[in-house]
Amino acid sequence: MFALLGSIGFTGAIVNDSLIMVDAITKLDLKRSHQSLQNIIEGALTRFRPIFLTTISTIIGLLPSSNGIIGVPYGYISAHHLRGLGITHWYTIRPIRNPCPS
Questions:
Q1: pTM (2 d.p.)
Q2: Which helix (DSSP H) or strand (DSSP E) does residue 100 occupy?
Q3: Nearest partner of 39 among 29, 54, 50, 53, judged by Cα
Q4: How far, rounded to the nearest angstrom, does the alpha carbon of residue 52 sit from its chain's CA centroid?
Q5: Residue 102: its H or E element
Q6: Quick one: 81 exposed, middle or buried, by C-beta within 10 A (0-12, 13-18, 19+)?
Q7: What pLDDT is recorded for position 48?
Q8: At what angle do helices 72-97 and 36-66 cross, to 10 degrees?
Q9: Cβ neighbours for 84, distance < 8 A, ≥ 6 positions apart
Q10: pLDDT per residue as tens digits for the range 33-88
Q11: Assigned domain for 66 exists
């Protein structure tokens, strides 16, 4: 039950990050409608740092409760939340740092 609450939490955080990214790209598309690829690249570059810093601060904030400092039931929630954030960021940031050869 507590792990399910943690998965709902990290799913919400990831969906929020993607909505922020899509919103930034959409705003650029409204300004310059002819350059879709350039708008995607620019939107991703401008929103990458705030999204990354928000996720890192969330992970750091959840570390004490996942280690059981606050309590056992909350430890399950935050540990699952941390695993989800770590896995999703591993699969999204790693391709940006080390893109596939073309």
A1: 0.61
A2: none
A3: 29
A4: 7
A5: none
A6: buried
A7: 80
A8: 150
A9: 6, 7, 9, 10, 11, 14
A10: 777 788 888 888 888 888 888 878 877 877 777 676 665 566 677 777 777 777 77
A11: yes
In a domain, 89, yes or no: yes
Q: Give backbone dihedrals phi and psi of 51, rounded to 5 degrees, phi first.
A: -65, -40
28-56 in b/e form (b: 16+ CB < 10 A) is beeeeeeeeeebbeebeeebeeebeeebe
The domain containing residue 20 runs over which residues? 2-97
Q: Given a cut of 60, is residue 102 above it in pLDDT?
A: no
102 belongs to a structural domain: no
Q: What's the per-residue H, E or C state across 23-62?
A: HHHHHHHHHCCCCHHHHHHHHHHHHHHHHHHHHHHHHHHH
Domain count, the chain: 1
In a domain, 28, yes or no: yes
Short-list 25, 17, 22, 26, CA closest to 93: 17
**Residues contacting 15, CB < 8 A, separation 6+:** none
Tokens representing 65? 């409760």
